[in-house]
Design a protein that fits this description.
- The chain has 248 residues and is α/β, with parallel strands linked by helices.
- It folds into two domains: 153 residues, 3-Layer(aba) Sandwich (Rossmann fold), CATH 3.40.50; 81 residues, SIR2/SIRT2 'Small Domain' (2-Layer Sandwich).
- It has nine helices and nine strands.
- The strands form two sheets. Strands 3-2-1-7-8-9 form a six-stranded parallel beta sheet, sandwiched between helices.
- α1 crosses α9, α5 packs parallel to α9 and α7 packs parallel to α8.
- The protein is elongated.
- Bound molecules: adenosine-5-diphosphoribose (APR).
- Adenosine-5-diphosphoribose (APR) binds next to β8.
């Protein structure tokens, strides 16, 4: 990451009217949650089919075993890292207006961000696929297959499975924010999953400037990114915060 690019990014952030963040699994890697793709990615260890909606309904016991291992036993202990906290601080300063996240780990809320659009849902809640009753995952003993106490159907995590639609409110708010924004900061996403990855492209079509933070280049980098800050989310976000504080 060049000093010149960092300073340009800081100036863009300070002068923007409506900055939003678009985050992917990479922002939570330094909280101990592996990414889905790339080296040591979850999909190199587990079959993505575990999150296929039909497979879940046909084979809930097998599916829940793996889902519990990945998203509750493993993710469960994760805490927000500096990158999450910097975004929350920039929201408090009125600089970041919203965070659109593909992540289901709840870490933006736990870091203090208020305006968060969870495009893929949230693992902290379970939902009954039939009566839509919701339950806090922390209040349910996941050793047994969780059943709805209303209609005894097998509960599923309240995040979207492959083949499932995007939560309506998150979808609507995300694209409204992408229309409003004049600066989007993309943090830790390959840009490989639609429709989420179409949000930055939609913003770009409306003239939005794009800052991207990632240790590696992605599908966004050579297509829509204006300033590529190569590095880990915590390192770059801390550098940005220091520079912003010096100028405001
Ligand atoms: N800081 C910033 N970015 C990082 C870091 C880090 N410390 N470590 C890894 N990354 C980057 C990787 O280089 C990669 O570009 O994070 C990205 C992770 O990519 P994916 O795992 O594909 O994450 P994401 O783009 O969010 O995936 C989208 O895929 O399986 C679905 O629903 C799942 O929301 C997920 C969606």
């Amino acid at each position: 990451m060049s000093e010149n690019d960092l300073q340009k990014a800081i100036d863009l952030i300070i002068n923007s009217k409506y900055t939003i963040a678009f985050t992917g699994a990479g922002i939570s890697v330094e909280s101990g949650i592996p990414p889905f793709r790339g080296e040591n990615g979850l999909w190199s260890k587990y079959d993505p089919n575990v999150l296929d909606l039909n497979n879940f309904h046909v084979n809930p016991i097998e599916a829940w075993k793996v889902i519990k291992e990945i998203f509750y036993d493993f993710f469960g202990e994760a805490k927000p890292n500096d990158a999450h906290f910097v975004l929350a601080e920039l929201e408090m300063k009125g600089i970041v207006k919203a965070v659109i996240t593909q992540n289901i780990d709840n870490l933006h809320y736990e870091a203090g961000s208020k305006e968060v659009y969870e495009f893929h849902g949230n693992s902290r809640m379970l939902v009954c696929p039939y009566c839509s009753k919701k339950y806090h995952a922390s209040e349910i003993d996941l050793v047994e297959i969780p059943l709805c106490d209303h209609c005894h159907a097998v509960l599923k995590p309240d995040f979207i499975f492959f083949g499932e639609g995007i939560p309506k409110i998150a979808y609507q708010k995300s694209f409204e924010a992408a229309k409003e924004t004049d600066l989007m900061i993309i943090i830790g996403s390959t840009g490989e999953v639609v429709p989420a990855s179409s949000i930055p492209s939609f913003a770009k079509q409306n003239g939005t400037k794009i800052i991207e933070i990632n240790p590696e280049k992605t599908l966004f980098t050579n297509s829509i990114t204006d300033i590529f800050l190569q590095g880990k989310a915590t390192e770059v976000m801390n550098e940005l915060l220091i520079g912003i504080k010096q100028k405001i």
